[in-house]
Amino acid sequence: MRSKGMGLLCGFAALSLVLSHVEAQPQTAPPPDTGLKVGPASIPRHWSRYRYPETIPDGATYYIIVRGDTLWDLAGKYLGNPYLWPQIWDQNRYITDAHWIYPGDPLIMPKIALVSERAGEAAAGAAAGEAAAGAAGQVIARPGPGEQLIPAIEEMALQCADYVVSDPEDDSLYVLGSEQGATKIAYSERDILYLSKGSNAGVKAGDVYLAHHPSYDVKHPNTGHTIGHKVETTGWVRVILVQENSSTAIIERSCQDMHAGDYLTVFEKVSVPLIIKRTPPDRRTPPSGKIEGSIVDIGGDSMIAAQGQIVTINLGSANGIAPGNMLTVFKIMYPSVPTSRNVIGELAVVAVRERTATAVVTYSADAIMNGDRVELR
User: For position 67, which CATH number holds?
Assistant: First the structure.
């Protein structure tokens, strides 16, 4: 009996040790595969303090958090700059405290364009060792010693930028007016608007739309050839109430005054390109021999542009231009001679269409005007 009692005691002691060991283990899922993946996908159930998304939409690039990860490190690894960690957080708002992320939780990765200098050369690939594939198939510029990657433009400025289109956009969904009636002709943030379509056209509560105001035809300043039509972005609205043939929306952000008649397109979050901070070109910088174009419009209907202003050039994706490309701005003062180039500035391409591109002036040594020449660096 004594031997049997000792056996029971030993059994209880062993069971107690096992239970205490199990309770001490962190409640995390087995380590998932690391690296970037592309949806659609289902996220395995696991312990987390957050209500993480259980599915990943089709085409979305995502990452599964592992022990030791931080948003800072992930931004440095996949976006090329740790200071871009807020852009990862912005895509994953289920995370309420950016200082705490948990293994097994998914992160939708922002599609930030990180491109190399060679990306603007039509049909040209990156040189071996010069660049590598990025989070969404972009080409990531690799800064050299002492060089720094910086955002080319503030996100809000890019979201509100004017652009030039060759073909008209769908303008069938537009602003009818506001809750305040015909006496109010200009609308801004928090104003309530009525829209021209409702549930019969697929409009749903929660939908977000960009508002646009058609402006004027853009002609080449030297040839007079019509390049396209300028469109001003006036802000964006969120639908809060839907009826069969109309809907009600609130202005979430205004870039400028919104008016009745402004047409709406589905909101798309912009991708901010990164550029390598380098010494700007000057009169001694030799021509690159790459594609040339012209400045054909200046944002805000200005006559001249300087550092920080947005311009439109007559080069686009059809010419091999991509977000992040850098262009030298120059004049030939006496073309009939001809004299050497007078280099007056530098541009960074921030958004591209087929025949035109939007660029920001990153450096100016003199007033930049419509008709000034640009060359891909």
Answer: 3.10.350.10
* C-alpha distances in Å from residue 319, one per residue of 123, 124, 152, 315: 10, 12, 21, 6
C-alpha distance from residue 309 to each of 152, 161, 196, 251 (Å): 12, 10, 34, 25
pTM attached to this predicted model: 0.66
Q: What percent of the chain has pLDDT over 70?
A: 81
Nearest CA to 323 among 141, 172, 189, 193? 141
> Taking Cα atoms as reference points, which of 248, 216, 250 lies closest to residue 231?
216
Considering only CA atoms, which of 126, 142, 260 is closest in space to residue 193?
260
Query: Token digits for 310?
Result: 């947005």
**pLDDT by residue (tens digit) across 281-299?**
998 999 999 999 999 999 9
Q: What is the mean pLDDT of the chain?
A: 82
Residue at which a domain ends, from 108, 132, 166: 108
Stretch 99-117: mean pLDDT: 74
